[in-house]
Automatic annotation (TrEMBL):
<dbReference type="Pfam" id="PF02678">
    <property type="entry name" value="Pirin"/>
</dbReference>
<feature type="binding site">
    <location>
        <position position="86"/>
    </location>
    <ligand>
        <name>Fe cation</name>
    </ligand>
</feature>
<dbReference type="InterPro" id="IPR012093">
    <property type="entry name" value="Pirin"/>
</dbReference>
<feature type="binding site">
    <location>
        <position position="42"/>
    </location>
    <ligand>
        <name>Fe cation</name>
    </ligand>
</feature>
<dbReference type="InterPro" id="IPR014710">
    <property type="entry name" value="RmlC-like_jellyroll"/>
</dbReference>
<dbReference type="InterPro" id="IPR011051">
    <property type="entry name" value="RmlC_Cupin_sf"/>
</dbReference>
<keyword id="KW-0408">Iron</keyword>
<protein>
    <recommendedName>
        <fullName>Pirin N-terminal domain-containing protein</fullName>
    </recommendedName>
</protein>
<dbReference type="GO" id="GO:0046872">
    <property type="term" value="F:metal ion binding"/>
</dbReference>
<feature type="binding site">
    <location>
        <position position="84"/>
    </location>
    <ligand>
        <name>Fe cation</name>
    </ligand>
</feature>
<dbReference type="InterPro" id="IPR003829">
    <property type="entry name" value="Pirin_N_dom"/>
</dbReference>
<feature type="domain" description="Pirin N-terminal">
    <location>
        <begin position="2"/>
        <end position="102"/>
    </location>
</feature>
<comment type="similarity">
    <text>Belongs to the pirin family.</text>
</comment>
<keyword id="KW-0479">Metal-binding</keyword>
<feature type="binding site">
    <location>
        <position position="40"/>
    </location>
    <ligand>
        <name>Fe cation</name>
    </ligand>
</feature>
Length: 205
């Protein structure tokens, strides 16, 4: 199964605490064999699993057994060490999704391992909808705790819509385009491209 890694890239290694952005599919698992990732370890980071189609079975050394399904967040904290496996299920025909990785700050690098599952409700926008799985956007706040202030959301736009979102100007923001072409503050972006907005400069004293 082909995975496209859009972060880090030559021009940028991090967006805030987001350190990896992997995007895969749409992938016909009858041709590729799907996702078969045997147990492997992680330390000092969190993995954010988010699907657009298909289903993945997750098991880890904490004892968690869960499924990753479209519109549902699975957040695993590696902390001082965790091992997990990810396998697409027999019910999956088309596998399509993203896995985002978060670098833990130094003081929390050895935090206890953890696993969180959350199903965010769709938030209507003027020209689309959002599902906020981490942080706050469009008046909705995810209950999932993080070690660094973060924003993570899937935004689906109507064709031809123009949407303005109020975001924290102190944050770095990235937009990973999955399907279709968009203009981000005048910059054209195509699928699997990453648009980046730096934080606003602090006001002069």
């Amino acid at each position: 199964m082909r995975v496209r890694r859009t972060l880090p890239q030559r021009a940028r290694s991090l967006i805030g605490a987001w350190c990896f952005a992997d995007h895969y599919g749409p992938d016909d698992v009858t041709d590729s064999g799907g996702m078969v990732v045997p147990p492997h370890p992680h330390t000092g980071l969190q993995t954010v699993s988010w699907l657009f189609s298909g289903e993945i079975e997750h098991r880890d050394s904490l004892g968690s057994h869960a499924f990753v399904r479209p519109g549902e967040l699975n957040l695993m904290t590696g902390g001082h060490g965790i091992s997990h496996s990810e396998v697409s299920t027999r019910n999956t025909r088309i596998l399509h999704g993203a896995q985002l990785w978060v670098a833990l700050p130094g003081e929390h690098r050895d935090a206890p391992r953890d696993f969180q599952h959350h199903v965010p409700a769709p938030v209507p926008l003027d020209g689309g909808e959002a599902r906020v799985f981490l942080g706050t956007l469009a008046g909705d706040t995810s209950p999932v705790p993080t070690f660094t202030p973060l924003l993570g959301a899937e935004i689906t736009l109507d064709p031809g819509a123009a949407v303005t979102l109020a975001v924290d100007p102190a944050f770095e923001h990235g937009v990973l385009v999955d399907t279709g072409d968009i203009l981000l503050t005048g910059t054209p972006l195509k699928p699997a491209e990453l648009g980046y907005t730096p934080p606003a400069a602090p006001p002069s004293p």
